[in-house]
Amino acid sequence: PMDPSQAAAPAPAAPAPAPGPAASAPGNWYYCESQKNYYPYVTQCAEGWKTVPASPPPGR
Question: Would you say 28 and 53 are in contact if contact means Cβ atoms under 8 Å apart?
């Protein structure tokens, strides 16, 4: 039999990470076409997130 001191302890249950997109660059928003809304107001996006600059393009 295996020595109990060598048995691997079960990993503690870690909270699940937020289901939204990973924060890549500050100043970007993430838009979900099917939901017609932005993260974090929408937490799941079936077709994937569209990265949108948070500020309007120059010249406006």
Answer: yes
- The torsion defined by the Cα of 16, 19, 22 and 28, in degrees rounded to 10, comes to -140
Collapsing DSSP to helix, strand or coil, 46 comes out as: coil
Mean pLDDT of 21-26: 58
* Global model pTM greater than 0.90: no
Distances (CA, A) of 36 to 21, 46, 50: 16, 12, 11
CA distance 19 to 43: 6
CA distance 15 to 23: 18
